Task: inverse folding
């Protein structure tokens, strides 16, 4: 387990403990399940939203790490009473019975990780099917998009490659992402019913998209605790 993962999980645990001691009413700050088109800037939007709300940010690589580390899994549920733990267990079992998730240890651990974060709240989760896994009462489900030209330009800049190479990689990443959701969760990534909100960073910009996500969260979940530095 890397130091950065240790720090992230420990800080998230402190958020939950602070909310528990403050007797914050349920939901204790719901999650934001953020899906995206590659190169649309969802990582930047997610970071800005997490900063405004003082939420933890869990990218797909972090979700994968947590899913592989059973010790971290135990840390995520530490402090929960048996009723809540049983609720998480029942939801995971029910998900595999009633939805077309592939039955594999990897996907089961990913689902367990995301369901636990959703139950405890106060996290932005990027990718890994979070918008499909979490029920609408626990998360604002967001899709971040952008025009192809903007996505190619962003990818070329971030990866340090030519626009031609970026275009080819973007096509492959689009295909991989659609395939992941279709194979493991049986859904079409472009189905608008999967999301509560779609934001376009090409027209709104990163700041505008992030502000819209925060405003939508506050309207969807009125008891969400506002961060002092929010938009």
Result:
């Amino acid at each position: 387990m890397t130091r950065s993962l240790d720090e992230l999980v420990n800080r998230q645990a402190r958020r939950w403990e602070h909310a528990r001691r403050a007797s914050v009413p349920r939901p204790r700050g719901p999650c934001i399940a953020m899906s995206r088109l590659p190169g649309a800037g969802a990582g930047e939007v997610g970071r800005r939203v997490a900063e405004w709300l003082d939420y933890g940010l869990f990218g797909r690589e972090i979700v994968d790490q947590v899913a592989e580390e059973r010790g971290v899994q135990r840390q995520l549920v530490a402090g929960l009473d048996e009723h809540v733990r049983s609720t998480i267990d029942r939801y995971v079992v029910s998900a595999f019975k009633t939805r077309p998730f592939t039955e594999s240890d990897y996907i089961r651990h990913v689902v367990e990780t995301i369901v636990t974060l959703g139950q405890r709240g106060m996290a932005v989760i990027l990718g890994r099917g979070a918008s499909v896994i979490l029920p609408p009462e626990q998360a604002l489900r967001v899709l971040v998009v952008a025009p192809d030209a903007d996505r190619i330009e962003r990818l070329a800049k971030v990866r340090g490659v030519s626009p031609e190479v970026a275009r080819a990689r973007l096509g492959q990443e689009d295909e991989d992402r659609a395939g992941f959701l279709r194979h493991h969760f049986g859904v079409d990534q472009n189905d608008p019913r999967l999301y509560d909100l779609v934001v376009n960073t090409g027209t709104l910009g990163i700041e505008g998209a992030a502000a819209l996500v925060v405003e939508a969260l506050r309207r969807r979940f009125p008891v969400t605790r506002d961060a002092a530095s929010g938009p």
